[in-house]
Amino acid sequence: MEKSNLGMVVAAQPEAVEAGASVLRAGGNAVDAAIACGLVAGVVDPQMCGIAGFGNLQVYFPASGIHECIDFHAKSPLATSPDQWADIVVGETRDGFGFVLEGNVNDVGYQSIAAPGSLKAYFEAQTTWGVKDWDYVMRPAIEWAEKGFVVRPHVAGWWAEGAALGRANNVDRLKYSRTGRDIYFRPDGSLKKIGDLIANPDLAKTLRRIAAEGADVFYKGDIAARIAEDMQANGGLLSDEDLVQYKTTRNHPLETTYRGLKISSNHPPGGGIMVLEMLNILEHFDLAAMGHNSVDYLRTVTEAMKRATSDKDLYVGDPEFVDVPLDRLISKEHARSHSDEIRSGQRASVERMSYESKDTTHVCVVDKDGNSASMTHSLGMPSGVITNGLGFMYNGCMGVFDPRPGNADSLAPGKSRFSSLCPTMVFEDDELRYVVGAPGGTQIAMGVTQVLLNSIDFDMNMLEAVSSPRFSSTSNAIDVSNGIPWSVTDSLDAEGYEVIRSPRTHDFAWVHGIRVSSGSMDGGADPAADGVVQSA
What we know:
Elements: E1 2-4, E2 8-11, H1 14-25, H2 30-44, E3 54-61, E4 66-72, E5 89-92, E6 99-101, H3 118-129, H4 134-147, E7 149-150, H5 153-159, H6 170-174, H7 178-184, E8 197-198, H8 201-213, H9 216-219, H10 222-233, H11 240-245, E9 249-251, E10 254-258, E11 261-265, H12 272-282, H13 287-290, H14 295-315, H15 326-329, H16 332-343, E12 360-366, E13 372-378, E14 424-428, E15 431-437, H17 444-456, H18 462-467, E16 471-472, E17 477-480, H19 486-494, E18 498-501, E19 512-517, E20 520-525, E21 532-535
Helix pairs in contact: 1-2, 1-4, 2-3, 2-4, 4-8, 12-14, 12-16, 12-17, 14-16
């Protein structure tokens, strides 16, 4: 566990963390560091995130009274039709974060791409709140693209994961484009291994253009024209109009309280509403008295997870298209009704069709002045598409829309789909105490909530909190990591719960966070990924 009184960066890639920490040491602030870190992550973890992705950023500057979120979810192309895939539905993934269609047309290839928001958000945040020049913040990403990065275990692990939950094989994504075949495979055609070098000169050139001309070159300029031409030539739905019209959304965070602390997270279509609802429910229970990861604890927390999941499925979507009952879902009264049901022994049911993406990353930064940034950014399940000469992979966000018309997350032109990403901050008497977030698809809200419980209710430091074995319930089953005791799961089995054990010791999101206490900071990077903590 690393401690600091100055500044700290935590993220899932060592190269990205180094970039952010270097920016802090050079006089940059938390936003400068977070954006530099995010840009490098898109180079060295190119299926997890990138300039053609989406996400959400929470920013807190106490001296200036600034506390805002920038939402940059991907938007379905304007050419989208609500019923375009209604007759080719195979099923829904068990965790409820994506649909499987015939031919995986929503999952890989040109039709899977939605209008990206990441670069626009990076540029808006850095030029609004940062103190360094834009081109300076971009330099580390350009350097890593030019000189190349070494394949790390976590990157190789995702490549080797194969096809899961009915989705396309990850290797097929890597070989979908000419650039992918050139940079991710050895001359003999085999996939590169841990320790092999991956350089991306095309991406370096693209990033140099963006460093010189800003985000407009991607959304309105020459790069936008090349994107639109490639999409049209290959049957994509995305057009130049989608890029020109793309706008981020800025708002104040959603808030609730938990045991006297203020919890701040993002609005729909992000997952902050689930974190707040689960904490509101769990506030009615003495979790510490139950014992950490005990039978009672798992039973209680997973029932809260299922209820928040059902509420999300029924009510939460893009607020531009769906009337989300925010006040009711995060109200203390709503939480009390759920807690009463749990206490009486009622078991929630999460409906699925029969039959998610973990392709995301996160960065947490606190600087010496107490400014902080928490950003989760992603490609969703990456499309595999790389336009010749541009170097970056596009998101595959169309895969998470509901292909059945009439539901909260059904297809519509210009719409964003719910995602579980939830960059979160916690305050005590208006003093910052936690900056937390995670990649991990539909498990993000579950992982972030458990890490907060670990530290708030069980007094763990941040490394302990992110390293402790986790569990999840986003369906009628309880999923547990292999670190959960067998005696606990045997008891749950005996009570009639369906328990599914992961072979992984660390699973269910990869949470990264910083705890601030008495002027000092301690950080934790989830041991399931390649992340590190670095002080400035």
